[in-house]
From TrEMBL:
Family: Belongs to the YciI family.
Protein name: YciI family protein
Region span, Disordered: 117-143
Bias-annotated ranges (Basic and acidic residues): 125-136
Residue ranges annotated for the YCII-related domain, each copy included: 10-101
SUPFAM superfamilies for the chain: Dimeric alpha+beta barrel
Entry-linked InterPro entries: Dimeric_a/b-barrel, YCII
Pfam families to which the protein is assigned, alphabetical: YCII
Amino acid sequence: MIIGKGSAETEAGVMPSRQLVDDMMAYNESLAKAGVLLAAEGLAPSSRAARIAYGPGKPKVIDGPFAETKEIIAGFWLIQVKSREEAVEWALRVPVPEGGEGVGLELWEVFDAADMPETSLTPETAERDKALRESLETNPPNA
Protein backbone atom coordinates (compact mmCIF):
# COMPACT_ATOMS: atom_id res chain seq x y z
CA MET A 1 0.00 0.00 0.00
CA ILE A 2 1.31 3.42 -0.95
CA ILE A 3 0.03 5.96 1.55
CA GLY A 4 -0.03 9.66 0.70
CA LYS A 5 0.55 11.75 3.82
CA GLY A 6 -1.70 14.66 4.68
CA SER A 7 -0.69 18.31 4.72
CA ALA A 8 -2.12 21.62 5.85
CA GLU A 9 -3.66 21.97 2.38
CA THR A 10 -5.36 18.56 2.37
CA GLU A 11 -6.60 19.18 5.91
CA ALA A 12 -8.07 22.51 4.77
CA GLY A 13 -9.94 20.68 1.99
CA VAL A 14 -7.94 22.39 -0.76
CA MET A 15 -8.59 20.49 -3.96
CA PRO A 16 -5.64 19.62 -6.19
CA SER A 17 -5.01 21.60 -9.35
CA ARG A 18 -6.47 20.39 -12.63
CA GLN A 19 -2.92 19.55 -13.77
CA LEU A 20 -2.25 17.41 -10.68
CA VAL A 21 -5.57 15.60 -11.14
CA ASP A 22 -4.63 14.87 -14.77
CA ASP A 23 -1.17 13.69 -13.67
CA MET A 24 -2.69 11.44 -10.98
CA MET A 25 -5.13 9.98 -13.51
CA ALA A 26 -2.25 9.20 -15.88
CA TYR A 27 -0.34 7.59 -13.00
CA ASN A 28 -3.37 5.50 -12.00
CA GLU A 29 -3.86 4.46 -15.63
CA SER A 30 -0.22 3.36 -15.84
CA LEU A 31 -0.67 1.25 -12.69
CA ALA A 32 -3.83 -0.30 -14.17
CA LYS A 33 -2.17 -0.93 -17.55
CA ALA A 34 0.70 -2.70 -15.75
CA GLY A 35 -1.89 -4.86 -13.99
CA VAL A 36 -0.80 -3.90 -10.46
CA LEU A 37 -3.56 -1.50 -9.35
CA LEU A 38 -6.13 -2.88 -6.89
CA ALA A 39 -7.52 0.43 -5.54
CA ALA A 40 -6.69 4.14 -5.46
CA GLU A 41 -8.60 6.65 -3.38
CA GLY A 42 -8.27 10.10 -1.86
CA LEU A 43 -9.49 10.76 1.65
CA ALA A 44 -11.55 13.62 3.06
CA PRO A 45 -9.96 15.94 5.65
CA SER A 46 -9.75 14.65 9.22
CA SER A 47 -12.55 17.05 10.18
CA ARG A 48 -14.83 14.41 8.66
CA ALA A 49 -13.06 11.51 10.37
CA ALA A 50 -13.17 9.77 13.74
CA ARG A 51 -10.73 7.74 15.79
CA ILE A 52 -11.59 4.97 18.19
CA ALA A 53 -9.43 4.85 21.33
CA TYR A 54 -9.36 1.71 23.45
CA GLY A 55 -8.53 1.62 27.12
CA PRO A 56 -10.21 0.63 30.33
CA GLY A 57 -13.98 0.59 29.91
CA LYS A 58 -15.84 1.37 26.71
CA PRO A 59 -14.04 2.46 23.53
CA LYS A 60 -13.92 6.24 23.12
CA VAL A 61 -14.88 7.92 19.83
CA ILE A 62 -12.76 10.98 19.06
CA ASP A 63 -14.11 13.21 16.31
CA GLY A 64 -11.72 15.03 13.96
CA PRO A 65 -10.13 17.28 13.06
CA PHE A 66 -6.84 15.96 14.39
CA ALA A 67 -4.01 18.32 15.29
CA GLU A 68 -0.98 16.47 13.96
CA THR A 69 -1.01 16.55 10.13
CA LYS A 70 2.06 14.28 10.12
CA GLU A 71 -0.21 11.52 11.44
CA ILE A 72 -2.88 12.01 8.78
CA ILE A 73 -3.18 10.30 5.43
CA ALA A 74 -4.68 12.00 2.40
CA GLY A 75 -5.05 9.00 0.12
CA PHE A 76 -3.72 5.62 -0.87
CA TRP A 77 -2.97 3.20 -3.67
CA LEU A 78 -3.31 -0.51 -3.11
CA ILE A 79 -1.00 -2.29 -5.53
CA GLN A 80 -0.02 -5.90 -5.98
CA VAL A 81 3.62 -6.26 -6.96
CA LYS A 82 6.28 -8.96 -6.73
CA SER A 83 8.72 -7.15 -4.45
CA ARG A 84 9.39 -4.24 -2.14
CA GLU A 85 11.74 -2.85 -4.79
CA GLU A 86 8.96 -2.83 -7.38
CA ALA A 87 6.66 -1.05 -4.91
CA VAL A 88 9.34 1.59 -4.32
CA GLU A 89 9.75 2.04 -8.09
CA TRP A 90 6.02 2.70 -8.46
CA ALA A 91 5.92 5.02 -5.43
CA LEU A 92 8.74 7.11 -6.85
CA ARG A 93 6.52 7.80 -9.89
CA VAL A 94 3.65 9.34 -7.87
CA PRO A 95 3.00 12.85 -9.19
CA VAL A 96 3.83 15.53 -6.65
CA PRO A 97 2.27 19.00 -6.75
CA GLU A 98 4.47 21.88 -7.80
CA GLY A 99 6.43 23.05 -4.77
CA GLY A 100 5.59 19.75 -3.08
CA GLU A 101 8.16 20.06 -0.33
CA GLY A 102 6.94 18.21 2.71
CA VAL A 103 4.82 15.81 0.66
CA GLY A 104 5.52 12.30 1.86
CA LEU A 105 4.62 8.74 1.03
CA GLU A 106 4.80 5.59 3.08
CA LEU A 107 4.95 2.03 1.78
CA TRP A 108 3.34 -0.72 3.81
CA GLU A 109 3.20 -4.40 2.97
CA VAL A 110 -0.33 -5.79 3.19
CA PHE A 111 -0.77 -9.36 4.31
CA ASP A 112 -3.75 -11.68 4.55
CA ALA A 113 -4.59 -14.95 6.23
CA ALA A 114 -2.37 -16.89 3.82
CA ASP A 115 0.63 -15.01 5.25
CA MET A 116 -0.13 -15.92 8.87
CA PRO A 117 1.74 -18.67 10.68
CA GLU A 118 -0.13 -21.96 10.97
CA THR A 119 -0.17 -21.56 14.76
CA SER A 120 -2.26 -18.38 14.41
CA LEU A 121 -4.89 -19.74 12.06
CA THR A 122 -7.08 -22.80 12.38
CA PRO A 123 -8.09 -24.65 9.18
CA GLU A 124 -11.68 -23.51 9.84
CA THR A 125 -10.62 -19.85 10.06
CA ALA A 126 -8.54 -20.18 6.88
CA GLU A 127 -11.58 -21.63 5.09
CA ARG A 128 -13.81 -18.80 6.38
CA ASP A 129 -11.27 -16.24 5.15
CA LYS A 130 -11.13 -17.90 1.71
CA ALA A 131 -14.96 -17.93 1.48
CA LEU A 132 -15.16 -14.28 2.51
CA ARG A 133 -12.61 -13.21 -0.12
CA GLU A 134 -14.39 -15.21 -2.82
CA SER A 135 -17.74 -13.64 -1.90
CA LEU A 136 -16.19 -10.15 -2.15
CA GLU A 137 -14.90 -10.96 -5.64
CA THR A 138 -18.28 -12.21 -6.85
CA ASN A 139 -20.43 -9.70 -4.91
CA PRO A 140 -18.49 -6.42 -4.60
CA PRO A 141 -19.88 -3.84 -2.15
CA ASN A 142 -22.54 -1.52 -3.56
CA ALA A 143 -22.95 -3.73 -6.62
